[in-house]
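Dear support,

Our group has been running a series of protein-ligand predictions, and this particular one with L-rhamnitol is the one our PI (initials K.S.) wants archived with full inputs and outputs. We had some confusion internally about which version of the output was final, so please treat the block below as the authoritative record. The input we submitted was:
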Amino acid sequence: MSNTNKIKNAYIEAKERYAELGVNTDEVLKQMDKVAISMHCWQADDVTGFENPDGQLSGGIQATGNYPGKAVTIDQARNDYEKAMSLLPGEQRLSLHAIYGDFREGKADRDEIGPKQFQSWVEWAKEQQIGLDFNSTLFSHPKADSGFTLSDNDPAIRDFWIEHVKRCREISEYFGKELNSRCVHNIWIPDGSKDTTVNRFKHRAHLKDSLDKIMDDKRDPKMMADAIEAKLFGIGVEAYTVGSHEFYLSYAVARKMMLCLDIGHFHPTEQVSDKVSAVFQFIPELLFHVTRPIRWDSDHVVTLSDEVRALFEEIVWAEKLDKVNVGLDFFDASINRIGAYVTGVRAAQKALMLALLNPTAKLREYDENGQYFERLALLEETKSMPFSAVWDQYCVEKNVPTGVDYIGEIQQYEKEVLTKR
Ligand code: RNT
Ligand code: ZN
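Confirmed final output from the archive:
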């Protein structure tokens, strides 16, 4: 029997098993297409970008490892994204950072960039038939050396970064219009300090004021939407982070904006999944940075971990699938970077599929009737349902490798392309 037939047969059996629990797997396969994962551009080159290829990554984040094959030109990076996306089922988008502009025709500082530096990205995205998301880059720059950007005490520094973010919002709107697909623009700043800070209030007041100035510049909400990303701490910024969760949660509620929840940006025992149903009571739309923190915000490649599964379950159970934007955020320089992409995106997609395959109607019924033993037992049993048969079927339908087959494809790409760099 051919492999495709084996997969088909396994799927037919799995479909029956899930149907017994009231789950329609054909519907699940259709729903999978409604969520486009926004693949982050920065895994391909360890967050270096093309503005200054020799530049040092700053801002309390770090890509460790020295695996060969890092993309150093814009063409190499695009090749890598194309390769990764060719091995992924379902819909993708690409999330660009401002430092990934096309500077081949001339440098432009952060307060000078505009659609011009991103025109070739739009052309590329049109060819790929994908949407683009965007991120202001407020790190890896001499004007971030004080450790503060939008919240710096020096008004000249704040103005420089305010202008940068305004330009990034213009670029985001341009992406939305050109690609006919709204662009999500995310703002994360590294601001903070290593040791006890007396002027905590002052810096946060500066940040509030800077954000207000930025948002005064009205953009078409159908073409772009802003999200703000909080953080607990960074390397060298252990004592004080200006853009904390409370700060941005309050700002997002007050100004009716999207909040970005990065799974790595909370205390290690805090469950970000539990925040979904809380925050959605007050904020209509969320962005997630799906990542894998190990002990701290280490940005490991996403795997099918309990927390990632719980996150997607909460989104599905809150019936907010159409109100979430799923971005990824990891940068591991110690392994094949394309392999990192494919493994990470697939893990997020698997978590989504597993959440959709839950017998939610039955579970809700048990929940509401106070049948907690039954709820517990059914949740346990779902863990050993034939999920892989549905996943393989999805990959076959999308014409991408099933199971472990993508490992070989990535090894070949490494041999033919990456090792020649
Ligand atoms: C940093 C934030 C942020 C960055 C990217 C590169 O802790 O998570 O999202 O990882 O902007
Ligand atoms: Zn993040």
